[in-house]
Amino acid sequence: MFLSRLGAGLAAAALAPGLARAEAPVDAVVRQLESFGYRDVSVRRTLLGRMRITARRGDTEREIVLDPRTGEILRDLLRDRRGRHIPELSDGSSAGRSYDKDSGSYDDDRDDRDDDDDHSGSDSDDDDSDDSSGSGSGSDDDD
After folding, report:
1. Is 79 helix (H, G, I), strand (E, B) or coil?
2. Helix or strand or coil: residue 60?
3. Using one digit for the tens of pLDDT, what is the confidence trace for 71-122?
């Protein structure tokens, strides 16, 4: 009896980190929506296992669908009160953003700021020291 409870407890503990990690992208999106002034935020699982997040700000409704395993945003729609699609966002857009599981946040590699996890920009690790173009003979003589 004790061993079966222990086994069930260990199985639940083994599954828990995966579940927590899967929910992290959803939590990050909800926090960002609230920081952009969205209210009435709701989260529901779709039939395909994706997460559908809806929220309202003023006369607009936003719907975000993401893959909870990867954090990839599959859809990000804005609609006005009449249900018409609003094509562009002035803020709060997810375009060019990716979820970083290590930091638990979204990052925009296309912005002008060079974040620690950006792979491009002026603070990039690539200093062109391995580049064979440019001036110099290209030889490595130790005279």
Report:
1. strand
2. strand
3. 999 999 998 888 788 875 555 444 444 445 455 544 544 444 445 544 444 4
| CA quadruple 28, 33, 37, 40: dihedral sign | negative
**Residue 137 domain-assigned?**
no
- Helix ranges (H only) for the chain are 2-35
Residues of 77-110 as b/e, b for ≥16 C-beta within 10 angstroms?
A: ebeeeeeeeeeeeeebebeebebbeeeebbbeee
33: exposed, middle or buried (Cβ count in 10 Å: 0-12, 13-18, 19+)? buried
Is 96 contained in some domain?
Answer: yes
- State which residues form the domain around 49: 13-108
Q: Which helix (H) or strand (E) holds 74?
A: strand 73-79
Contact status, residue 76 vs residue 64, Cβ threshold 8 Å? yes
Domains of the chain: total: 1
